[in-house]
Design a protein that fits this description.
Length: 284
Amino acid sequence: EVKKNGKNGYQFYTGELNAQLQEKIELEVELRQALMRDQLFLDYQPQIRAGDGQMIGVEALVRWRHPSRGTVSPGVFIPIAEETGMIYELGTWVLREACRQMKTWHDAGGPLITVSVNLSSQQFHQPNLTTYIKGILEDTGLEPQYLELEITESMMMDAAVSTGILNELTEYGIRISLDDFGTGYSSLSYLKLLPIHKLKIDRSFIRDIVVNKNDKAIVATIISMAQHLNMDVIAEGIETKEQLDILTDNDCEKIQGYYYSRPLPAVEVEQEFFAPMRIAAAAK
Ligand code: C2E
Ligand code: MG
Ligand code: MG
Ligand code: MG
């Protein structure tokens, strides 16, 4: 329902829309405080090598422990952070925390695995990105080869036209992964021009892969292309053994999905995925 204010022509939206807007404004205000009040935290989703079940990396995923709403998912608050410019501060916190945690694990004798961090396009365009990320790695002590940045296809296209940013990052030793691969707009020719280490097959192709021949064909093609381009490939959103079998039959060994594990708090990653002897070492 839309009401018109006769005097100045402003419109007041009521009902559903008003409630949504109201909620967004509330979240915006609360998100500003969330960082200071320590309400953000990271879960880590294991990435598994199917052949031997070893964890080869984790993806850091941010969550907001909201005082009254419970855990708010990044799908809700990342867009707000992007709209309001809070993404810089939030993104810095995520990068620092992810690197700090991985360095702590390495130091405690945990497996020498990578941590993947999602970047927003605005972060990607911040000036001196390489210097800024170098600073975080130096502060936390994590070696660059253990950090993987997840960017989207549109970010890759931007990088291609604007700067040598991807080259700078990879020359420093950081790895670049193309997230949600296959869902964005990108030109395949950039895959050979730019330093992309890994394709991450989007879970929309996985969901129906057991029954949908087209999805299966697309996934098989992405895997084969990655191999020919000498890139790594990982599938996300694997939930069942049947899906897993199709991926491994097609030579995709790296898997992220509920089949192996949901995103977990750091301590649960240690409990469930670190070798027992190593946990003992970490406890000392
Ligand atoms: P993404 O980077 O594609 O992350 C994977 C998402 O898929 C995660 O959702 C994860 O929980 C979910 N997922 C993993 N395996 C499965 C599965 O087997 N089945 C299903 N149904 N889902 C699965 P989440 O944690 O809600 O994150 C959503 C998105 O929010 C992420 O998608 C990413 O784009 C964004 N995001 C998360 N953390 C950050 C962050 O720190 N910074 C930025 N810029 N974006 C983030
Ligand atoms: Mg991701
Ligand atoms: Mg993804
Ligand atoms: Mg995504």
